[in-house]
Amino acid sequence: MTILPSHLETQRLLIRPFHEEDLASFIKIRQDKDFRRFMQPETSNHEPTCEELKQRLSRFEREVKTSGLGPRALTYKQTGKVAGFCGIIHTNGAPDKEIIYFILPELRRINLCLEAASCVIKNMQADSIGAFVETHNTASLTVLKKLGFKYEGDIFHPFQKKHVGWHSLTPDKSPKSN
Question: I need a labelling partner for 34 at 20 to 30 A (CA). Which of 83, 94, 133, 175 fits?
Fold first, then answer.
């Protein structure tokens, strides 16, 4: 069973697997100061090569197709360009599967993260989901609050090698009555 369909769509976004053709966009995402600040471990001094990043995109694409896990490219319909990513990952040592998301600076403040994350949660085949978010990442905390996540406490993030806030959500999947 896959956690999430490989392709999803919202009013403004196509949510799809990354492809090798997305390399330039992926590099732009990785070079963003907020990506480096919140999503890259402070202990890592290694800057991946283009070949390593191509391999990572290929791995993401395989993971999405086989298990439904992994980041997906967010294509902004208005421009046809990759605007960021969203998906569900499994982090060893985390209490649950984790939702991750990121939007490039020029498209922030128009709720694309909220739109993408809401679609992913609505379509996931899991009873619960979590998110690691640092206390000073107020934009991400706002998204989690709007989605209904609850702060559970700080726990050790095995990838970032420090304590980070863990937030959880048990989505209501029951049919809505009129």
Answer: 94
